[in-house]
Specification:
211 residues; four-stranded mixed sheet
Length: 211
């Protein structure tokens, strides 16, 4: 049976949430660990509210549901997340869980890890590294669509991938996890090297990324 890296990242994130408590900072602007946990909870258990993440007209409803969810005891929220998608969730079957949640839980795990001084990048398992690279190859053009310049991704022992073409190009060089966090809009909290014009690199560092 294939390793479910979504479940491994879920478990590690829940351990870290329990350790940090409900009021710790995250890289999600304006959100504490409790806010982030409530987001993850409704994403899997309230499809009506989860649509607000992608559909602006439903955002107010989704935020209202998330705020109510955040009023539950933090320990309960974390344990519900740890238990995984409920049986009625479209994310419940293993393959769908892996497809929908590997990136989500990796990024939010790092959102909590990297919110304190002194953080260091993790050394990812070969399996997680490979899965995240596949996701970047599949979704990179969507994640980089708002980039003001062209973007090439270069990771160790990987064939470079162009995720946006433009007259001016910047190559991002680094580990796969760092590339993921950069394209998810956490540019200031990544460890990468850049190849391109200085002005283009600065534009890219302040660009809006993510879904």
């Amino acid at each position: 049976m294939p390793v479910n890296h979504a479940q491994l990242e879920r478990s590690a994130l829940c351990d870290l949430l329990a350790e940090r408590g409900p009021l710790a900072e995250t890289l999600c602007e304006g959100w504490t660990t409790c806010d982030l946990a409530a987001h993850l909870l409704i994403r899997e258990r309230r499809p009506d509210a989860a649509l607000g993440i992608l559909a602006a007209p439903l955002a107010a409803h989704g935020e209202s549901v998330r705020q109510r969810a955040a009023q539950q005891p933090f320990e309960k929220i974390v344990e519900l997340i740890r238990s995984g998608p409920p049986w009625y969730s479209v994310m419940h079957p293993g393959p769908i869980d892996r497809a929908a949640n590997t990136l989500e839980y990796f990024v939010h795990h790092e959102d909590v890890r990297r919110a304190i001084d002194g953080w260091e990048p993790r050394v990812l398992s070969p399996g997680l590294d490979a899965e995240l690279w596949k996701i970047l190859c599949r979704m990179g053009k969507v994640l980089a669509r708002k980039a003001p310049v062209g973007v090439i991704l270069q990771a160790p022992n990987r064939v470079p991938v162009t995720v946006k073409s433009a007259a001016s190009m910047v190559t991002l060089n680094g580990e796969v996890g760092e590339l993921v966090m950069f394209l998810e809009g956490r540019q200031a909290h990544t460890r990468l090297e850049f190849d391109g014009q200085d002005s283009d690199i600065e534009q890219l560092k302040s660009a809006s990324f993510g879904i």
